[in-house]
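Suppose you are handed a protein chain with no further information: no name, no annotation, nothing but its sequence. What can you learn? This example shows the usual starting point.
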Amino acid sequence: MVEDTTPKVPAITFSYLVYDYGTILKDGDGTCYFEFKNTGRADLQLTNVSSSCGCTVPQWPKEPIPPGQSDHIKVSYHTSRVGTINKNIYVESNTGEKVTLSIKGYVSETPKEIVPEQKTSPLMNN
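A reasonable first move is to predict its three-dimensional structure. Written in structure tokens, the prediction is:
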């Protein structure tokens, strides 16, 4: 029998490192999720998740993630300002590596409601 000498350490693998909102409306839903999996051989513990700006708020699992299990980091971007979205989220864990995630996109002004002009018909003026 061959002994497995692979180290029993955690490893984190994300489904994607960049989330593109595309164009969203001002004050719209700025929530996205970064899915990840513990692809290592020991429990994964996220120790800190922070962002490059106060307008980007990450929420992450505080419990250890066993090998082979998946979870997610929820990111809420405040869409109160019109303009380009280009923010980073920094993930620290017991893997010893810091992973940088990014969100991008554009927040556009909410269109004004257009009320159709009332046109009167010459037949109605009788």
